[in-house]
């Protein structure tokens, strides 16, 4: 199991500099890093730190982050996606992350579902041959993302299946799925191959694995046993020092010390 540190939150206690956080992740024995937006980063410094440390960049958000549930946004998203792909290629990232956007008032679920399918089909054309894939991410609407359209992992998988292109998959966040009351073995049964990246955090609090109620180790073991081969993004808000808690986090995830 390869662990990828989301350096938006991890190692923020030790440095305000994202390039330094890459070095700290390397020193802590992690395998990769990831972040959210690329447009607000010093990409030259990020690139230099990745080369210096030999760390992999798992992925980042496809910009602009706008509602894909609204067809009026599709042209802007696709233009931005092309730039995000070039940035991913420059930095060696293989995954871009897309969020569906809000559940739009006055528009049916069916209309918005179709809008997502249409947008992702067009996105697949942009991605084709690039070596980069796009994962749409279901999020919980009970705590962190009220008003978001895509809270169901099953619907996200149905959308991916309708798109029917290898460039498109989902980002499966075990925390968001748990908050929505989903069981991993139910929602991903026979469709683990559509998962191109995974995220973890514990509940309640979205904090360090091992501090809450989710048996993340067992769920990750199921995920890998059923064909997942990607990395696991540590996208949680540390309660204290990132580095000092990593042994406990690894144990909670079932990763040998």
Task: Record keyword descriptors for this entry.
alpha/beta, 8 strands, 257 residues, TIM Barrel
What portion of residues is helical?
25-40%
What count of domains describes the coordinates?
1
Helix-strand category: alpha/beta
The CATH C-level class name:
Alpha Beta
Main beta sheet strand tally, sense and closure: 8 strands, parallel, barrel
- The rounded Rg comes to 17 Å
- By CATH, the topology is TIM Barrel
β-sheet strand percentage? 5-15%
Q: Quick one: CATH superfamily?
A: Divalent-metal-dependent TIM barrel enzymes
Overall geometry comes to: globular
Mean pLDDT value: 98
Question: How do the strands line up in the largest sheet?
Answer: 1-2-3-4-5-6-7-8
Structure annotation, total helices: 9
- CATH architecture descriptor: Alpha-Beta Barrel
How many beta strands in the DSSP annotation? 8
Compressed to H and E, one letter per element, the order equals EHEHEHEHEHEHHEHEH
Report how far the terminal alpha carbons are from each other.
12 Å
- Stretches where pLDDT is under 50 for at least 5 consecutive residues are none
Enzyme class: isomerase
Organism: Devosia subaequoris
Active site: 137 (proton donor/acceptor), 235 (proton donor/acceptor)
EC number: 5.3.1.22
């Amino acid at each position: 199991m390869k662990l990828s540190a989301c350096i938006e939150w991890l190692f923020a206690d030790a440095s305000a500099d994202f390039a330094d956080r890459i070095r700290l992740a390397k020193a802590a024995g992690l395998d990769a890093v990831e972040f959210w937006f690329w447009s607000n980063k010093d990409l030259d410094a990020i690139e230099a730190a990745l080369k210096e440390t030999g760390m992999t960049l798992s992925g980042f958000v496809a910009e602009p982050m706008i509602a894909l549930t609204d067809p009026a946004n599709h042209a802007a998203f696709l233009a931005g996606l092309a730039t995000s792909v070039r940035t991913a290629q420059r930095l060696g990232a293989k995954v871009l992350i897309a969020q569906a956007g809000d559940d739009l008032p006055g528009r049916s679920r069916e209309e918005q579902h179709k809008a997502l399918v249409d947008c992702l089909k067009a996105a697949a054309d942009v991605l084709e041959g690039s070596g980069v894939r796009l994962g749409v991410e279901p999020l919980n609407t009970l705590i962190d993302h009220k008003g978001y359209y895509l809270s169901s992992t099953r619907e996200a998988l149905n959308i991916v299946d309708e798109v029917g292109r290898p460039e498109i998959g989902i980002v499966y966040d075990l925390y968001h799925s748990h908050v929505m009351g989903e069981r991993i073995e139910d929602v991903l049964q026979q469709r683990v191959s559509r998962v191109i990246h995974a995220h973890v955090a514990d509940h309640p609090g979205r904090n360090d694995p091992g501090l809450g109620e989710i048996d993340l180790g067992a769920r990750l073991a199921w995920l890998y046993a059923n064909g997942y081969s990607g990395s696991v993004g540590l996208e949680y808000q540390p309660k204290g020092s990132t580095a000092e808690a990593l042994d406990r986090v690894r144990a909670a995830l079932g990763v040998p010390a």
